[in-house]
Amino acid sequence: MGRFDGRIAVVTGAARGIGYAIAQRFAQEGARVAVIDLDESAARKAAAALPGADRPKTSHLGLACDVADAASVEAAVERVVSELGGIHILVNNAGVTRDNLLFKMSEDDWDTVMGVHLRGAFLMTRAAQKHFVNQKYGKILNLSSVSALGNRGQANYSAAKMGIQGFTRTLGLELSPFGINTNAVAPGFIATEMTDATANRLGVPVEDFRKMNAEANPVRRVGAPEDIAAAAAFLCSDEASYITGQTLYVDGGARLD
After folding, report:
1. pTM for the complete prediction?
2. By three-state DSSP, how is residue 8 classified?
3. Among 239, 216, 245, CA closest to 146
4. Per-domain residue ranges for the chain?
5. Residue 157 falls in the annotated catalytic set
6. Max Cα distance, the chain (Å)
7. pLDDT by residue (tens digit) across 94-144?
8. What does each C-alpha distance from 229 to 11, 27, 36, 196, 232 come to in angstroms?
9. Could you say which of 20, 137, 157, 249 is catalytic?
10. Which of 82, 126, 160, 221 has the smallest C-beta neighbourhood within 10 Å, fewest atoms?
11. Closest of 97, 240, 243 to residue 160, by C-alpha
12. Where are the alpha helices (DSSP H) in the chain?
């Protein structure tokens, strides 16, 4: 038996990167997964590639959703419940970056990042918690970042990711009496398309950028999406039922230096 047998998990921004790794880990452990992404074609393709996708066609679901749009979110959650038969786990992973120094940052850069990260987590959680409260069971995992502690050129992203931690603690207070655990993971440097794009923006070869970041933490390697998926699997399992409102930094010990 898998840890998530009989569970239905929703993972936003799951067509690639960390989100896909989490969806894959959940599917490996028995969950039926709804892969949510702004790109519907990519979401469907990702869902079809998950372990167990060769079971009946309702095994996993890929669908488009703009997490910053309330109507889109409500429709997506209701579709998951209708087609997969419920919802037990929500992972708020969808994210974007619009990096720039403060004096160059536009209002749109600020609003876009806040909209996807904070508004998106709020809207998805509000839609899912109705079902969680009714069934007296639910797991919510929010994706923060070590950038929450401050990072040059990321005033918008850092503010949003620290906001996620405050959001997580508040949900822990409000929702725990209803059998709902809410936690967050704050990844350090993870080798993904997003961090590769940062290297390209800075004009640094990707391998050099990864090596530089590996040397900046005690374990002397960069993280992989699977590292975050492992933490997510624990925090969304019943083994973590006495943990709520917490943020786990998965950063190779970078904060220890």
Report:
1. 0.96
2. strand
3. 216
4. 8-188+224-249, 191-222
5. yes
6. 54
7. 999 999 999 999 999 999 999 999 999 999 999 999 999 999 999 999 999
8. 11, 11, 16, 19, 5
9. 157
10. 82
11. 97
12. 17-28, 40-48, 70-84, 107-114, 120-135, 155-175, 193-202, 206-214, 225-235
